[in-house]
Automatic annotation (TrEMBL):
Superkingdom as given in the UniProt entry: Eukaryota
One Pfam family this sequence matches: IP_trans
UniProt source species: Thamnidium elegans
Any GO molecular function: phosphatidylcholine binding
A cellular component term, taken from the record's GO annotations: cell periphery
Domain Phosphatidylinositol transfer protein N-terminal: 1-247
Protein name (database record): Phosphatidylinositol transfer protein N-terminal domain-containing protein
Signal peptide limits: none
Length: 258
């Protein structure tokens, strides 16, 4: 098992990030869907537990082309679909990803805490055990200066060149922007990666960790560079966007089947 804690510092408030994250997630789902692959939203509804309430989502990710060839070679058709459950009780969120074929032999679990005014300095934001702390790797993500895969780079999604007209934020050219930007918040994302498959376990877990790192970096670069799209939206606006996104994704899949 790999335990990584990614700390993503963002040039926005914690309240703004809640809207920004949901908006960016809906847009990313559209981008990833096509050619028989993509995201299917099964549920998106409020939930309530003792001392906790928020939004529950259930999704299927059909992204077989995103996994390495050596995994596709040993996995039967349909075995690469991922099933996601997420409980968004913002500012705390928990997400569980599993695979129907591997069942308990594969899981990605991540917990996120969003902290206003933080610059990534909290050493145990999610209050994990001493044993897990010993195994944890801390990774600070710099959305402006960390390298992204060439295939993921887009000039209009580069925080070093983007300037928000609505807020005046950006471009993030200063190497020390994380220490000086205002407003500021940090996403503390604790990720547990487990892949029990004899012979390729460590190789696959390392690949997944690298993929998640790149995903978090790319996603938050987009989130910042889409500031003028989400700034000023309400949660009610977001729910309408999510509902329309689900309809669009369903229609796209139905069209490809026919």
């Amino acid at each position: 098992m790999i335990i990584n804690e990614y700390r993503v510092i963002n040039n926005c408030t914690e309240a703004e990030y809640q809207v920004a994250q949901l908006y960016a997630t809906a847009q990313a789902s559209k981008q990833q869907t096509g050619g028989g692959e993509g995201v299917e939203v099964l549920k998106n509804e409020p939930y309530e537990k003792p001392n906790e309430k928020g939004q529950y989502t259930q999704k299927i990710y059909r992204l077989s082309s995103k996994v390495p060839a050596w995994v596709r070679a040993v996995a039967p058709a349909g075995a690469l679909d991922l099933y996601e459950e997420a409980w968004n009780a913002y500012p705390y969120c928990k997400t569980v990803l599993k695979n129907g074929y591997m069942k308990d032999a594969f899981s990605i679990v991540y917990e996120t805490l969003h902290v206003n005014g933080s610059r990534g300095e909290l050493e145990n934001a999610l209050n994990i055990s001493k044993d897990d702390l010993k195994k944890r790797n801390v990774i600070i993500i710099d959305i402006a200066h960390d390298k992204v895969d060439a295939k993921d780079y887009k000039a209009d999604e580069d925080p070093k060149t983007y300037k928000s007209e609505k807020t005046g934020r950006g471009p993030l050219t200063d190497p020390n922007w994380q220490k000086t930007c205002e407003p500021v918040m940090t996403c503390y994302k604790l990720v547990y990666i487990e892949f029990k498959w004899f012979g390729i376990q460590s190789k696959t877990e390392s690949f997944i960790a690298k993929t998640i790192h790149n995903l978090f970096t790319t996603f938050h670069r987009q989130l910042f560079c889409w500031t003028d799209r989400w700034y000023g939206l309400t949660i009610e606006d977001i729910r309408s966007i999510e509902e329309q996104t689900k309809k669009d994704l369903d229609a796209k899949r139905d069209q490809e089947k026919n």
